[in-house]
Please model this.
Amino acid sequence: MKEEIPIRPFWYSDAWIFPKLITVITTMDKDGRVNAAPYSHIMQYDVMAKTPQMMMGFRQDSHTFKNIKATGEFVINCPSSEYLEDLMETARFYPEGVNELEHTRFTTIPSRYVKPPSLEQAPQIMECTVDRIVELDKSSGIVYADIKAIIMDEGLEKMSRAERIPAMNLPIGLGDQDRFEYFYARPSDIVSFGLKETPRGIQAESIDPTMQWDKDSMEGLMQIPPMVREMVMTQVETYAKGKGSEEVTMTHMSELMAEFGMDEALMARFGGPKKD
Model:
């Protein structure tokens, strides 16, 4: 038996459970004073490598939001779950101008492209600058930000995901009770599932091009996962026709990928051919 739940204030935290990444965002005010606070209203916005962006939501009266509006810069730090107590310390409502990090075990390191510092204890970090800000009426302030750099602990990127998840040990936020008691999970019970081919995907293994493809481009196409192979084929053929070509070449595939901010690393991810 199910029941309808009233949509009350803090519905997103008290009623609905959103498992979320917990971050510490570091900013500086116009006088250069550091501020740090935890945030989980955060997600990727523009996923293309050419124009990568994040989207975050803040209370409009928060020190973090005020600092971002004033300076246009901030850092998203993802500490490991070993530092949950320190993360919670940054959530306390210290007076404006107080550096919350001084009450934690966190230590700072210089950021590469922005003025606010990064956290040494964060295995993954994003340095960001503001693209635009939307202030919702009597609600959140939404920040759309350009990613200037992604910084990770050395060696993490080369790990498989199965190795990287426990190595990073990032906490998962599970909301709070009455805005007082906050709940978290640690990634100690990880499962993975292999994606089975859909019937459409199986059919895509024997796709029928409408144009001639040269050997290299066809080999490249066949490295694309079957479930999206037909879609990619159509896009590349449309691009080649727009160029006045009667045959699809690897150049067409590379040029089209470049328009979407992709490169040959994408083909390598699927085991595709690489240029010498």
